[in-house]
Structures are given as structure tokens and as C-alpha cells.
Amino acid sequence: MTVTNFQLRAQIEALHARYAHALDGDELEKWPDFFTPQGRYRITTAENESRGLPLAVLYCEGQPMLRDRVASLRHANIYEPQRYRHMISSVLLEEETATSVKSIANFLVVRIMENGETMLFASGRYVDRVTLPELRYEERVVICDSRRFDTLLAIPL
Amino acid sequence: MTVTNFQLRAQIEALHARYAHALDGDELEKWPDFFTPQGRYRITTAENESRGLPLAVLYCEGQPMLRDRVASLRHANIYEPQRYRHMISSVLLEEETATSVKSIANFLVVRIMENGETMLFASGRYVDRVTLPELRYEERVVICDSRRFDTLLAIPL
Amino acid sequence: MTVTNFQLRAQIEALHARYAHALDGDELEKWPDFFTPQGRYRITTAENESRGLPLAVLYCEGQPMLRDRVASLRHANIYEPQRYRHMISSVLLEEETATSVKSIANFLVVRIMENGETMLFASGRYVDRVTLPELRYEERVVICDSRRFDTLLAIPL
User: Fold this and answer.
1) SS3 assignment, position B72
2) For a tag site, which of A149, B136, C17, C91 has the least CB within 10 Å?
3) Is B115 helix (H, G, I), strand (E, B) or coil?
4) Closest approach of chain A CAs to the CA of C90, in angstroms?
5) A2 touches chain B (CB under 8 A)
6) Calpha distance C68→A89 (Å, rounded)
7) Chain B partners of C115 at a C-beta cutoff of 8 Å?
8) Which residues contact C108 (CB under 8 A, 6 or more apart)?
9) Global pTM value
10) CA A18 to CA A20: how far, in whole Å?
């Protein structure tokens, strides 16, 4: 069942927007707070997902693990300076309950290197379980279209 | 006259989102059901459109013809496996009547090949006539910015 | 404070959409009317912005100056014909007052040349001050991610 509650739709879109701006503005320390205390974050590929493979490119469970991830990125930052820009569209809401809603959305991320070079970095969809009325990710699964991954995958998608 | 009915806006955005996810998720069989029984689907170029040329890159009229198109794609599928990802934004509503509304929206489609290579595939705008309250496309015109077209054009835009 | 007024959100999204379609449809003469009489338009880079540098790639203040810009583009148009397509997402509203609201949004612009070649042209964010209830830009700051700029920068972003 598609949820057509337009007020909820606006709230979920605003949540995704805050998430995108935090990452694009290099405010990584805010990232764990978008999740519930036990929140799960997983990056996988469409290929693995369609085959039902549990393999993840990245898996974090709970805010402490999400904070560790940010700390590693900050301390072990050996990468070339870069920016990301998230585009998010086509939000679909499903399975609304009194305490959560499922959100599916398309994303496209471009990466801008220090020298100005811009490239398509990743595309795919977010499949989320968002708690209500707190509006936090209980689970965010990032399903990337491509199986070709930059091994320096650094900033969260 | 621009329509500022925010509830209708949310409904139209949800329709475009369902359409995008059906195509990106390779659920082509759902595609004809987004149209009315006599619904028209046309792909053209901005160049032809601005010159008033009736030429279409693709034209389908009515659900049976749309279903034929899907069947051809399924049976004659000689193409390299690929995924699409639709980004849709800047929805504008105009000319609302009791039974329909005109929607204009920008789109950007990226194509992801089996080997992981991602490319900008098409950009342009959708110009739609959507029936109310059923929310189906009576007409969807896909106006592509580029006149350079992949001759293997397979999956609907 | 994030503004969660969903009706206002729909209005601002519709404003950004009209702006995008005016530029993508080459209706440049409409562009100054999206601003207040004293409206300011500034293109800068993320690098300059984060360093607090007041340098702008382009700066216009007031409708007469915006109209001059359009006139120059029309009269001195020595550039290769091209189209733009704006994608806008992740709108965030902040600092709402009785007479204005701040809007932040991500953008991605692709450029389509006469020969059909399509490229990522620019990405970044719009930081706007929009007057209420008129819905005009009192200020639109276009902060581009890349410092590498096409010197033929012609059509407004």
C-alpha cells in the first residue's frame, strides 16, 4: 500500500534533505544522529540484493559503530580532498504503522575532486525504515546500481 | 495558471515516483498500467518539439500497444544487461480541471551496464496529462534534450 | 530551526521548479522577474564560500542589472547553441519569518550541446532568501562545488 499522506511525505523528504546536506557539507559528526540508537546502515549492490546475498560493502549497527566509522574517516583521512553532492528523488512511502514508515527513494551522487573534476560517483536507491514521530532511520539500506566500487569509499552515501 | 494545490502536488510526485521505480526495478509489465486504456506515450526530441515536427522516436497509443512494446522488449532482448536510474525533479502543475491536470517535470536518466560502467543516458522533460482522481497518464510526452539517441533504445523512459 | 510547514515547502519547490523550467526552456527574459526589485544574484564557489571570501564569479543586484545580463547574453551570443537541464532536490527551509524564509537546495545541471553531447556542467547548492507571500528571490546565492569554471559561462544557473 502506497502511503499518500502528504504531510508525512513532506516530513520524510525533509529528513532525507537534512541527511544529504549534512554529508555534502562535510558535517560527518551529525551523521550518526540521523539513526536510532540501534540503527542499522548497510551499503550493498543491486546484484547482491536481487540474489538475496547478505554481503554488504559496508555494515554498521548502532550509533557507537556509526560514530567509530566517522572517527576512522576523520583520523585516517589519507584521501584526496573531495566533495559529494547528493540528488534524491522519487520518494515512495509504504507500510506505514503507528511508529514507523518504509521509504524508498532514488539517489545520484556526484563527486567533485580538489582539482574541480566532477564525476558520477554512485546511483541507486535508499530503502529505509523511519521511526515516527521521531523521524530517525531505524534502518537505511543503500543499494548501489553498480558493482564497481571505488575502494577508497570514504564518505557515507 | 500554476496549480498550488499541495495535496495534488504530492499525489502527482508519488505517481511519477511509482513510475520511475517500476522501470528502474525492471518491472516493465507494470508500465502499461500507469496509462489510461487509450493512453498515449511518445518520445521525441526538444529539436523536433520546438519546430513543431510530429516526428516521434517512439509512439504508442493504448494499453495493448504498450503491452506489445513490453512483450517485444522481453522476447527480443538481445541487449547487454543494463539498469536505469531515473531522477525526477521540478514538477510544475498547470491547467487543472475537474478530471485532469497537466504536469511538467525534469528528468535525468543514468544507465548502468553489467560491468558497472555508469553514464548519463538521457535528460529532458516529461509533459503529461494526468487523469483525476485515478492518477493515470492520459498522455506522457518524453522530450529529450539530445538528438543523439542510442539506437538500442530499449527500456521506456 | 527547520521549517516543517508542508504547504510552504510545496510553494518553495514550485518556485524553484518554475525558475528551472524558465532557464531550461530558454525563456531568459522571465529570469529577472523571479527576483524582488532589489534582488541579489551571486554565483560563487564552495571554496570561496568556506573561506569567507567575498569573491563572486558573477554578481547582479536589482532587476535592471539582471535584465542587462539577459540583454548581453541575447545580443552577444557568440556561443555554440546549447541547452541546460536543472535537477533540484533536497530542499530545506529555515529561519521563517512573517515576510521571508531561507531555502537551501541541491542542484545538478547538465549541458547538452548542439551535436547532442551531454555533460555534467555544474553541481552545488542554492542558498536563497525568499519573500513571503510573494515568493520572489530577495537573494539567490549559487554555490558551485567545483572551482573549475567554463569561461563561457553564459546561461544563469
Assistant:
1) helix
2) A149
3) coil
4) 4
5) yes
6) 35
7) 148
8) A85, A87, A108, A110, B108, C86, C87, C120, C122, C123
9) 0.94
10) 5
| Type and span of the H or E element at A22 | helix A6-24
Measured distance CA(A144)–CA(A46) in Å, rounded: 6
Cell of C86: 536543472
Distances (CA, A) of B31 to A82, B16, B62, B71, C155: 39, 12, 12, 11, 36
The residues of chain C scoring below 70 in pLDDT are 1-4, 77-80, 149-154
Angle at A86 between CA B115 and CA C33, to 5 degrees: 130
Q: Please report, as a single letter, which amino acid is at residue A131.
A: T
Interface B-C: count of C-beta contacts within 8 A: 73
Q: What is the dihedral of CA C105, A35, A93, A109, to 10 degrees?
A: 40
Task: Please name the residue of chain C whose CA is at the shortest distance from the CA of residue A108.
Answer: C108
Whose grid coordinates read 555554440?
A: C80
All three cell numbers of B15, joined, read: 505517481
Interface test with A, best of C146, C149, C151, C157 (most A CBs within 10 A): C146
Which residues numbered 47-86 in B keep a CB inside 8 Å of some CB on C? Answer: none
* Sign of the dihedral defined by the CA atoms of residues B51, B57, B62, B63, in that order: negative
Residue A131 has pLDDT above 60, yes or no: yes
Coil/strand/helix, residue B61: strand
pLDDT in tens, B29-70: 999 999 999 999 999 999 888 888 877 788 999 999 999 999
Q: Does B92 touch chain C (CB under 8 A)?
A: yes
Which three-class secondary structure string do you get for A83-137? EEEEEEEEEEEECCCCCEEEEEEEEEEEEEECCCCEEEEEEEEEEEEEECCCCEE
Q: Cis before residue C133, ω within 30 degrees of 0?
A: yes
What CA–CA distance (Å, rounded) separates C79 from C77? 6
C53: Cβ–Cβ under 8 A, 6 or more apart, which residues? none
- List the beta bridge partners of residue C60: C41
Torsion, Cα A128 A124 B125 C91, to 10 degrees, reads: 50
B87 to chain A nearest CA, in Å?
A: 6
Q: Predicted ipTM?
A: 0.92
* C120: contact with A, CB 8 A cutoff: yes
